[in-house]
Amino acid sequence: MALVNQAKREINAKIVFFGPGQAGKGTSLRHVFNKLKPEFRGALKVMSVQGARMLFFDFTPPGDGNVDGFRVRFHLYTVSGPLVDPAAWKMVLKGADGVVFVADSAPQRLDDNKTALDQLVEYLKGYGQSLTTIPSILQYNKSDLADPASLGQLEQQLNPSGLVSFKTSSQTGEGVLQGLMALVKSILTGLRAKGAEAIGNGEGLQHMVESPAPVAAPAPPVRETPSVAPVSVQPPPAPAAPVVPATPPEADLSLEIAGDPVATGDVVRVPLTIRSGSREKTVVLTLSLGLSEE
């Protein structure tokens, strides 16, 4: 879900590169980063998430990349590694405004592609989304192999919905930038149809700020008990609201990510929720990152 920054007059949208391990997601993202002029992009950062490597950077498209006078900044994410914990993918996909599914064109990886696509569909379903409700493209990577799977095979197995697809090579860069720009154009069209005001009123904006601490209700006044002999009376009916048991003094603490990390320059802010029994508190963890050379 796109987020509006009123102070900077910016709309922040997220694009996720998803696919099976070693299909070329990270290489594709790095190619895009290297092709964009420095004045249009931020730094490429690497962050450890659930034992995998999350790569991300942001850029603003040149030309008419605005909505109602708001500049649109795109944040590109992927998670690389042979095996990625589903929790890492779910965190990265939360609030996505566009998806690039990177398939491996090697014939022996057709089953891996289908498994990864089914996982993507399941993860998006958990957020009430699908590949047809948010802008999505298919990137048939490694098309420069000596004997890649045919386009007909890939389309039949991976593209029953008829999404826009591109034959690409993340090593040479063929088709990668063209596919991304087509997705960016689709996202911008959708944002302009909504308008900046409608986007800003969305619930996603709440993930950018820390939730205020709950204010305790004032205690009822204490009435002095008169010194009279006890009288047998019918007690008043019990209140309708359920009584919440007190949190045990030894309640376990739990920590979970409450929303999407927001990268600004070299600083990444991660909203976290701390829970202890029935009590919870949302805080924002601020991390200062440096560029990792790998």
From TrEMBL:
<dbReference type="InterPro" id="IPR052705">
    <property type="entry name" value="Gliding_Motility_GTPase"/>
</dbReference>
<protein>
    <submittedName>
        <fullName>GTPase domain-containing protein</fullName>
    </submittedName>
</protein>
<keyword id="KW-0547">Nucleotide-binding</keyword>
<dbReference type="Pfam" id="PF00025">
    <property type="entry name" value="Arf"/>
</dbReference>
<dbReference type="InterPro" id="IPR006689">
    <property type="entry name" value="Small_GTPase_ARF/SAR"/>
</dbReference>
<keyword id="KW-0342">GTP-binding</keyword>
